[in-house]
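Journal club prep, notes for RB
We'll compare a predicted complex against what the paper describes. Inputs for the fe (iii) ion case:
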Amino acid sequence: MNITPINAFTDNYIWALHNDQHCVVVDPGDPAVVLAFLKAHNLQLSAMLITHHHFDHTGGIDELTHNYPQVRVFGPNNPKIKGITHPLTNADTFYLDDLKIEVSVMTVPGHTLDHIMYYAPDMLFCGDTLFSCGCGRLFEGTPAQMFDSLRKITQLPRETLIYCTHEYTQANIAFAETVEPHNKALAQYKLWVELQRSNNKPTIPTLLSDQLQFNPFLRVHDDSVQAFAQSIAGDLGQKTVTDPVQVFAALRQAKDDF
Ligand code: ZN
Ligand code: FE
Protein backbone atom coordinates (compact mmCIF):
# COMPACT_ATOMS: atom_id res chain seq x y z
CA MET A 1 0.00 0.00 0.00
CA ASN A 2 1.10 3.55 -0.76
CA ILE A 3 0.18 6.77 1.00
CA THR A 4 0.39 9.81 -1.26
CA PRO A 5 -0.39 13.45 -0.50
CA ILE A 6 -2.68 15.22 -2.95
CA ASN A 7 -2.15 18.98 -2.76
CA ALA A 8 -5.32 21.04 -2.38
CA PHE A 9 -6.11 24.73 -1.91
CA THR A 10 -3.04 26.60 -0.65
CA ASP A 11 -1.67 24.28 2.03
CA ASN A 12 -4.00 21.27 2.47
CA TYR A 13 -2.96 17.67 2.00
CA ILE A 14 -5.60 15.13 1.03
CA TRP A 15 -4.00 11.79 1.93
CA ALA A 16 -4.60 9.00 -0.59
CA LEU A 17 -4.13 5.42 0.64
CA HIS A 18 -3.97 3.12 -2.34
CA ASN A 19 -2.78 -0.08 -3.94
CA ASP A 20 -2.76 -0.48 -7.72
CA GLN A 21 -6.58 -0.69 -7.92
CA HIS A 22 -8.27 0.90 -4.94
CA CYS A 23 -8.00 4.21 -3.17
CA VAL A 24 -9.19 5.67 0.13
CA VAL A 25 -8.91 9.43 0.69
CA VAL A 26 -8.79 11.36 3.94
CA ASP A 27 -10.54 14.74 4.12
CA PRO A 28 -11.26 15.35 0.42
CA GLY A 29 -11.96 19.08 0.56
CA ASP A 30 -11.49 19.57 -3.17
CA PRO A 31 -13.11 16.96 -5.47
CA ALA A 32 -11.29 18.08 -8.62
CA VAL A 33 -7.79 17.23 -7.41
CA VAL A 34 -8.99 13.85 -6.10
CA LEU A 35 -10.71 12.96 -9.38
CA ALA A 36 -7.56 13.96 -11.29
CA PHE A 37 -5.43 11.77 -9.02
CA LEU A 38 -7.76 8.76 -9.40
CA LYS A 39 -7.76 9.16 -13.15
CA ALA A 40 -4.01 9.60 -13.44
CA HIS A 41 -3.38 6.41 -11.44
CA ASN A 42 -6.36 4.48 -12.77
CA LEU A 43 -7.84 3.91 -9.30
CA GLN A 44 -11.33 3.24 -7.93
CA LEU A 45 -12.39 5.29 -4.92
CA SER A 46 -13.57 2.86 -2.23
CA ALA A 47 -13.86 5.07 0.86
CA MET A 48 -13.54 8.56 2.28
CA LEU A 49 -12.46 9.24 5.86
CA ILE A 50 -13.61 12.58 7.24
CA THR A 51 -12.09 14.10 10.40
CA HIS A 52 -14.28 17.17 11.03
CA HIS A 53 -16.91 19.43 9.50
CA HIS A 54 -14.75 22.26 8.08
CA PHE A 55 -15.27 22.82 4.38
CA ASP A 56 -11.62 22.30 3.41
CA HIS A 57 -12.04 18.71 4.70
CA THR A 58 -15.57 17.91 3.49
CA GLY A 59 -16.13 19.94 0.31
CA GLY A 60 -15.57 16.99 -2.03
CA ILE A 61 -17.92 14.44 -0.44
CA ASP A 62 -20.90 15.24 -2.63
CA GLU A 63 -19.20 15.22 -6.01
CA LEU A 64 -17.01 12.20 -5.25
CA THR A 65 -20.07 10.23 -4.08
CA HIS A 66 -21.79 11.24 -7.30
CA ASN A 67 -18.85 9.82 -9.29
CA TYR A 68 -18.47 6.68 -7.12
CA PRO A 69 -21.98 5.78 -5.83
CA GLN A 70 -20.68 2.69 -3.97
CA VAL A 71 -18.16 4.67 -1.92
CA ARG A 72 -18.33 4.40 1.87
CA VAL A 73 -18.04 7.70 3.73
CA PHE A 74 -16.76 7.44 7.30
CA GLY A 75 -16.93 10.48 9.52
CA PRO A 76 -18.03 12.12 12.76
CA ASN A 77 -21.54 11.56 14.06
CA ASN A 78 -22.49 15.11 13.09
CA PRO A 79 -25.70 15.46 11.02
CA LYS A 80 -24.45 18.82 9.74
CA ILE A 81 -21.97 16.95 7.52
CA LYS A 82 -23.95 15.79 4.50
CA GLY A 83 -23.12 12.46 2.91
CA ILE A 84 -21.61 10.47 5.80
CA THR A 85 -22.73 6.84 5.38
CA HIS A 86 -20.88 5.49 8.45
CA PRO A 87 -21.06 7.88 11.46
CA LEU A 88 -18.43 7.00 14.05
CA THR A 89 -17.69 7.49 17.70
CA ASN A 90 -14.79 6.86 20.07
CA ALA A 91 -13.25 3.35 19.97
CA ASP A 92 -15.20 2.32 16.88
CA THR A 93 -13.27 0.17 14.45
CA PHE A 94 -13.82 -0.67 10.81
CA TYR A 95 -12.09 -2.63 8.09
CA LEU A 96 -11.00 -1.23 4.75
CA ASP A 97 -11.29 -4.50 2.81
CA ASP A 98 -9.63 -3.35 -0.38
CA LEU A 99 -6.51 -2.19 1.43
CA LYS A 100 -6.72 -4.78 4.25
CA ILE A 101 -6.41 -2.19 7.02
CA GLU A 102 -8.19 -2.26 10.37
CA VAL A 103 -8.84 1.32 11.44
CA SER A 104 -9.71 2.56 14.91
CA VAL A 105 -11.38 5.82 15.76
CA MET A 106 -10.61 8.34 18.50
CA THR A 107 -12.73 11.37 19.34
CA VAL A 108 -10.53 14.43 19.75
CA PRO A 109 -12.61 17.55 20.49
CA GLY A 110 -10.73 20.84 20.51
CA HIS A 111 -10.24 22.29 17.03
CA THR A 112 -13.93 21.45 16.53
CA LEU A 113 -16.26 19.52 18.82
CA ASP A 114 -16.94 16.83 16.21
CA HIS A 115 -13.27 16.12 15.43
CA ILE A 116 -12.18 12.47 15.18
CA MET A 117 -8.90 10.77 14.19
CA TYR A 118 -8.14 7.52 12.42
CA TYR A 119 -5.42 5.16 13.63
CA ALA A 120 -4.02 2.00 12.12
CA PRO A 121 -0.71 0.49 13.21
CA ASP A 122 2.06 3.03 12.65
CA MET A 123 -0.15 5.65 11.02
CA LEU A 124 -2.42 8.35 12.36
CA PHE A 125 -4.68 10.62 10.31
CA CYS A 126 -5.25 13.44 12.76
CA GLY A 127 -6.92 16.13 10.61
CA ASP A 128 -6.42 19.56 12.17
CA THR A 129 -5.70 18.30 15.69
CA LEU A 130 -1.91 18.05 15.53
CA PHE A 131 0.41 19.76 13.05
CA SER A 132 4.13 19.36 12.81
CA CYS A 133 5.50 21.62 15.55
CA GLY A 134 2.01 22.92 16.31
CA CYS A 135 -1.63 22.06 16.89
CA GLY A 136 -5.03 23.15 15.59
CA ARG A 137 -6.71 26.36 16.67
CA LEU A 138 -9.46 26.07 19.25
CA PHE A 139 -12.48 27.08 17.18
CA GLU A 140 -15.04 25.17 19.25
CA GLY A 141 -13.42 23.27 22.11
CA THR A 142 -11.76 24.31 25.35
CA PRO A 143 -8.05 24.13 26.18
CA ALA A 144 -8.80 21.23 28.54
CA GLN A 145 -10.51 19.28 25.75
CA MET A 146 -7.67 19.88 23.31
CA PHE A 147 -5.07 19.01 25.92
CA ASP A 148 -6.83 15.68 26.48
CA SER A 149 -7.05 15.07 22.75
CA LEU A 150 -3.33 15.70 22.27
CA ARG A 151 -2.60 13.36 25.16
CA LYS A 152 -4.36 10.60 23.24
CA ILE A 153 -1.79 11.14 20.48
CA THR A 154 1.18 11.05 22.85
CA GLN A 155 -0.01 7.67 24.16
CA LEU A 156 0.30 6.04 20.74
CA PRO A 157 3.42 4.04 19.81
CA ARG A 158 6.39 6.37 19.27
CA GLU A 159 7.02 5.02 15.76
CA THR A 160 3.60 6.26 14.61
CA LEU A 161 3.73 8.39 11.48
CA ILE A 162 1.41 11.37 11.77
CA TYR A 163 -0.41 12.51 8.63
CA CYS A 164 -1.63 16.06 9.27
CA THR A 165 -3.87 17.87 6.80
CA HIS A 166 -1.96 21.15 6.46
CA GLU A 167 1.58 22.19 5.59
CA TYR A 168 2.04 24.69 8.43
CA THR A 169 5.44 23.43 9.57
CA GLN A 170 7.64 26.44 8.79
CA ALA A 171 5.33 28.97 10.47
CA ASN A 172 4.98 26.62 13.44
CA ILE A 173 8.75 26.31 13.79
CA ALA A 174 9.06 30.12 13.95
CA PHE A 175 6.75 30.09 16.97
CA ALA A 176 8.35 27.00 18.56
CA GLU A 177 11.74 28.77 18.43
CA THR A 178 10.38 31.59 20.56
CA VAL A 179 9.18 29.00 23.11
CA GLU A 180 12.34 26.89 23.14
CA PRO A 181 15.22 28.88 21.59
CA HIS A 182 17.79 26.34 22.83
CA ASN A 183 16.09 23.15 21.64
CA LYS A 184 18.74 21.38 19.52
CA ALA A 185 16.33 18.86 18.02
CA LEU A 186 14.18 21.76 16.85
CA ALA A 187 17.16 23.53 15.24
CA GLN A 188 18.12 20.33 13.39
CA TYR A 189 14.56 19.71 12.27
CA LYS A 190 14.32 23.29 10.97
CA LEU A 191 17.26 22.67 8.61
CA TRP A 192 15.57 19.57 7.21
CA VAL A 193 12.25 21.39 6.82
CA GLU A 194 13.90 24.28 4.94
CA LEU A 195 15.51 21.80 2.56
CA GLN A 196 12.24 19.94 1.98
CA ARG A 197 10.29 23.13 1.33
CA SER A 198 12.92 24.63 -0.95
CA ASN A 199 12.55 21.45 -3.05
CA ASN A 200 8.75 21.79 -2.90
CA LYS A 201 8.45 18.57 -0.87
CA PRO A 202 6.06 17.98 2.04
CA THR A 203 7.29 17.91 5.63
CA ILE A 204 4.42 15.52 6.46
CA PRO A 205 4.14 12.75 7.60
CA THR A 206 6.11 13.29 10.78
CA LEU A 207 7.16 10.77 13.43
CA LEU A 208 5.55 10.97 16.85
CA SER A 209 8.96 10.39 18.48
CA ASP A 210 10.25 13.50 16.68
CA GLN A 211 7.23 15.63 17.62
CA LEU A 212 7.75 14.71 21.26
CA GLN A 213 11.20 16.30 21.02
CA PHE A 214 10.24 19.68 19.59
CA ASN A 215 6.49 20.29 19.32
CA PRO A 216 5.86 22.74 22.21
CA PHE A 217 2.19 21.71 22.47
CA LEU A 218 3.27 18.15 23.35
CA ARG A 219 5.92 19.40 25.79
CA VAL A 220 3.90 21.24 28.44
CA HIS A 221 5.71 19.31 31.19
CA ASP A 222 9.09 20.59 30.02
CA ASP A 223 10.75 23.26 32.19
CA SER A 224 11.53 25.70 29.38
CA VAL A 225 8.00 25.41 27.94
CA GLN A 226 6.57 26.06 31.41
CA ALA A 227 8.87 29.06 31.85
CA PHE A 228 7.63 30.49 28.55
CA ALA A 229 3.99 29.97 29.56
CA GLN A 230 4.75 31.61 32.90
CA SER A 231 6.22 34.67 31.19
CA ILE A 232 3.10 35.04 29.02
CA ALA A 233 0.74 34.53 31.96
CA GLY A 234 2.79 37.00 34.04
CA ASP A 235 2.19 39.63 31.36
CA LEU A 236 -1.52 38.91 31.68
CA GLY A 237 -1.37 39.41 35.45
CA GLN A 238 -1.77 35.74 36.37
CA LYS A 239 0.36 34.39 39.20
CA THR A 240 1.77 30.93 38.66
CA VAL A 241 1.12 28.63 35.76
CA THR A 242 2.02 25.04 36.55
CA ASP A 243 -1.07 23.06 35.70
CA PRO A 244 -0.44 21.44 32.29
CA VAL A 245 -3.80 22.62 30.93
CA GLN A 246 -2.95 26.21 31.91
CA VAL A 247 0.46 25.87 30.28
CA PHE A 248 -1.21 24.55 27.14
CA ALA A 249 -3.81 27.37 27.17
CA ALA A 250 -1.09 30.03 27.52
CA LEU A 251 0.88 28.48 24.64
CA ARG A 252 -2.18 28.30 22.40
CA GLN A 253 -3.05 31.92 23.17
CA ALA A 254 0.52 33.02 22.44
CA LYS A 255 0.45 31.18 19.11
CA ASP A 256 -2.86 32.84 18.16
CA ASP A 257 -1.27 36.23 18.83
CA PHE A 258 2.08 35.37 17.19
ZN1 ZN B 1 -10.25 22.61 10.35
FE1 FE C 1 -8.30 22.49 7.82
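Talking point for the session: The longest helix spans residues 184-198.
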